[in-house]
Protein 1
Amino acid sequence: MLASLSIVAGALCAVPASAQVRIKDIASFEGVRENQLVGYGLVVGLNGSGDSLNGSPFTKKSIEGMLERLGVGNLSGDAIKTKNTAAVMVTAKLPPFARRGSTIDVTVSSLGNASSLRGGTLIVTPLVGADGDIYAVGQGPISVAGYSAKGNAASIVDGVPTVARIENGAIVEKEINFELNSLNSVRLSLREPDFTTASRVAGVINDKLGHHTAEMLDPSTIEVRANGKYGVPEMLAMIENLPVTPDTVAKVVIDEKSGTIVIGSKVRIDQVAISQGGLTVKVKESYAVSQPKPISIGQTVVVPETSVQVEERSTKFSLLNGGDVSLQDLVDGLNAIGVGARQTISILQAIKAAGALHADLEII
């Protein structure tokens, strides 16, 4: 039976079709976004689980360069044999309007062949943006969620011990120059482009701030002009919490690997009859032993026996009437003929091929 499908469909049907959401939940504001930062550094203090310098030559070069900058020179490559250091890539996201001196979280990922970063400390690592400028500097003890342990004959690994995080592990050193107050207008970008949704967003904003304040430029962009009464920051604060009813495309999403089916509430189908049935052929092989009678000339032989059974399941039809069949009608019809998730996928594909399913069918 379609237990999982019924749960998904029931949850969707329980939500009103005209559910409202805040504008901030379906749109982003131009210029208000995160920026990606990346850096290369060293983690020290590992308990013998760091990079092997022969297998990670870049780690050896980094150690030599670091020691030279700290005044420890005249070291040959052969003199460095530590196993407590690992080369890592450090990544972070610079939040919008992050000010100098504020802190951000960083993620530390092993670059060499270190087995674990547990117990290590990241030393000063500059984090650069796409323009090559340094926007933050990271340093501090790292926290690893996974662990690894091994003996002579067995080992165990849980999680990923070569990836770690440092909460508030980087300090912002440079701000991104962007002043909202200097703008005369700002654009909203819908995360799911749609003409109807964009028109509704513009209408809700105009009702709140006045006529001609907002204008739909395309299915994903709405431009909002400052009207002189409010500055752009105050205007965005009022806009982001306005409720709006988004429109959605009718879609059926199928994951064939797991048998998961998600059907949108706007899916409609034409009048269609669905059947599910067929033949089941069972072939059973067995062997019997044939022996000659006592005091007779003969030979014991093995005789194969084959049993073939044919079972025909009665074909059941479920008729979905009307040209405006809803999601619940579709699910009830599929449940009525007792098919499973795999069979449901084939049925939905067949209905789509017949031209009766008015929705996008997406298979992932």
Protein 2
Amino acid sequence: MIKKSVAGSIVIGIGLTLVIMLISVIFLYPLLTLLHTPANIIDEAYSYISVVTIFVGVMFAYNLCAGLLRAIGNSVMPLVFLIISSIINVILDLLFITQFQMGVQGAAIATVIAQGISVFLCMIYIYQKTPILIPQKQHFTFDQELYKELLGQGFSMGFMMSIVSAGTVILQSSINGFGYLIIAGHGTARKLNSFCMMPAGTVGLALSTFVSQNKGANQKQRILDGVKLGNLIACGWGIIITVILFFLAPILVQFISGSTEPTIIDNASLYLRINAPFYAVLGILLNLRNSLQGLGMKIIPLVSSVIECLGKVIFVALFIPILGYFGVIICEPVIWCCMCLQLAYSFYHNPYIHQKAA
């Protein structure tokens, strides 16, 4: 059954990858225009995003391989391959941008190559160490119930991410109106933001596998204990990163952006310092959402994404025109709090969990 599930995931993933590539080729530039991307950066934005979307299959392959390894309890090797990929990415960024003068397109190519190397390493490891994950020709036969379940779970998570991305796109359209300096500062802050949130995201992903495994073994108390520990880790990391960014945000922004422009440094630093105290909330949010997915819930995590998207629409329409870039800064922390409340209620009132807690 494992090999048949892997085969189904490969088939579905290839199909969706081809659809994404086709859509990006047709609609990418019009979408950038629709988002009011400044004329002086739209070509560079297109050159970067087009490379990444054309090779989106590489990203799919890594996520599939890493997800398969985590599903059988091996969370160490995907992390090792990710670290190797990140180091290679940084080296290639410096080489392509500073030596070959390839600009932002060079950064995109570096990302694709680094991810490709990570995929190659994952596949070698799976071939040598976990042959149970390698499907054979007979495993690619169509199984209606299996494909229905895979598509149900996949589209649930896919729609969730799509709704989140749609909200981010709407928010970005508002940011684009502040000019290229604010865009550059916000982009730098978002990169640092993503890096700082990695521990929280990693714990959340681990909980998804942990919860599903323990539900299968009917170990309800272990699920509760695991989620509790994950939330404590999120709070601890939130405190640590808040202190770090309070003191070092300007230095980190200058290092990442390579700019000494006060507008870039000041706005990016303010963004990081205000967002940092809410990383704990985000960590708990991700823990609960991934845990609900581990319990087999498809709709409830989707509802949280709808809340996020609607929240960003409201901020773009009502608050950002009044508050300016400060409205952008506080947008996500406010939404995270609302989402966290909804997910906490849904998780602890889940019939499977609530029965144990009672």
Protein 3
Amino acid sequence: MSRAKRPNTPSPNETATKSPRSGPIGGDISAIVEGFGTRFRIPVLVSRHSQTSVMGLFALVNGVLSIALMSMAAVATGQAFIFPSLGPTAFLLFYTPTLPAACPRNTIFGHAIGVAAGYLALVIFGLTEAAPALATEVTWPRVGAAAVSLGLTSGFMVWLKVPHPPAGATTLIVSLGILKTPAQLTVLMIAVVLMVVQGMVINRLAGIDYPTWAPKLS
């Protein structure tokens, strides 16, 4: 008499490592779409929240709106409220908001480390008054500044336990001379804080347990 097959049930370790909110393409975007649909009573978002086409459309609209707000601030003030590394930060905040890298502490401290490391590299290599590398040419001092800034940013994010990958782009923006004056760097950090506020509002509206500061302890 043959023995009955046991059902394939996940082990406790497998159950613990799989996020209950993960959609078909990972991240929390499926839960965010469903949360918005529930809060604003949009049945199509509730019923189709896990469809890739719906999630992609939501990501498209959310990305346009979030960066458009920062761009309008840049136009209105004439300041650098928009810069390349803000894009990947926005994606983290709205795609994987529950990851430690997306929490307010890591986002703000990560970019601050990138800014400080980039400016320190400019000082070390005598490039604070030099034209941006992309407008002229890449010189050996610029190579040194870029390398040192990225190394310092990577090291300090690990030492201080505040990893935020987009900060690696921020430090290169500074060390390459694209944004380098104290006024520009101050505006850059204000833009980061405003993006965090946007992320907090959108995720909380969707019912996502986005942290107020540090990552949630599991």
